[in-house]
């Protein structure tokens, strides 16, 4: 079992803590894209096989752990505040999640599944597993997918969803 860091925004951290977020999608980087496209061409889907076994999966495989990095503010050597927990109103500078050391991480996730798909192939159920919540009692067609598209574009830039990149779909459970 390996352990790796993963970045999450404050709203996504709150969704993980509430038990609403059990998936995350991450764009497949160019160094993996050729391998993934070749595998998809041969098999029709991403299959973990001998060709890939010598490579380190970028986020891990089922059973591996991810420790969550989030925006934080150190109090002392062993304690910190978390933006997702108390917001911006605490004085002093916040540190970006990329700089969070392992000792301050309060959330560990166990990977339960990894697959590859095009971003636009997200289902309503998967959008909900991404932490998207319904706005009311009336359910509109593709409401969660539409909300996820807006979330993706807010994180990755306007029009990013329309580019429809291949993504790693990482399923996890909070430990």
Walk me through the topology:
Blueprint: E1 3-7, H1 10-17, E2 23-27, H2 30-43, H3 50-53, E3 65-69, E4 72-74, E5 80-82, H4 83-86, E6 108-118, H5 124-129, H6 143-156, E7 166-174
Parallel strand pairs: 1-3
Antiparallel strand pairs: 2-7, 3-6, 4-5, 6-7
Description:
The structure is a single chain. With 175 residues, this protein is α+β, with helices and mostly antiparallel strands. The chain has one domain (3-119, 164-174). The chain is built from six helices and seven strands. The model has no long low-confidence stretch (mean pLDDT 85).
Provide key terms for this protein.
single chain; 175 residues; alpha+beta; 5-stranded mixed sheet; two-stranded antiparallel ribbon; 6 helices; 29% helix; 23% strand
- Discrete helix count: 6
The biggest sheet amounts to: 5 strands, mixed
- Shape designation: globular
Question: In order across it, which strands form the biggest sheet?
Answer: 1-3-6-7-2
Mean pLDDT reading? 85
The helix content, as a percent range, equals 25-40%
Number of domains: 1
The radius of gyration is 17 Å
Quote the distance from N terminus to C terminus.
14 Å
Question: What is the gist of this entry?
Answer:
This protein has one domain (3-119, 164-174). It is 29% helix and 23% strand. It has six helices and seven strands.
